[in-house]
Amino acid sequence: MTPASRLTAALTAAVALVAGVLAAPPAPSAAPAGSFPVTVVNNTRGTWSDAQVYITVMGQSSPGQWAYLRTDGTLRPINHNDENAPGHLTKNGRNYANMSYTLAQARTVAMPPRIEGARM
């Protein structure tokens, strides 16, 4: 089993556990060479709308460099200054970086060719 297929299998299993959603792999358009698609399907039967199911993918783009996946398939380095960036989240008076997206924003994303220790 190749590293990419192991990561695909791990991500598929992880997604199946999150809020009753199931992963499937149709190909997105214009994906970078070496990437692979991950599609998340909302199988909650209406319990949660696509706008209520959030996806966060974090991993290392290189050893020691933590990043999160954006809907366009790019990895953005995690930066503590994002806590106060436009679009940040606030809970109990504390700001948090917004590193998640909803199924309404993107169902299929291209996983980059290199991401280590990723969690979804």
Automatic annotation (TrEMBL):
The keyword Signal applies. Residues 1-23 form the signal peptide. Pfam families: Glyco_hydro_64. Keywords: Signal. The lineage of its organism: Bacteria, Bacillati, Actinomycetota, Actinomycetes, Micromonosporales. This is GH64 domain-containing protein. It comes from Phytomonospora endophytica. It comes from the Bacteria. InterPro entries: Glyco_hydro_64, Osmotin/thaumatin-like_sf. Residues 33-120 form the GH64 domain.
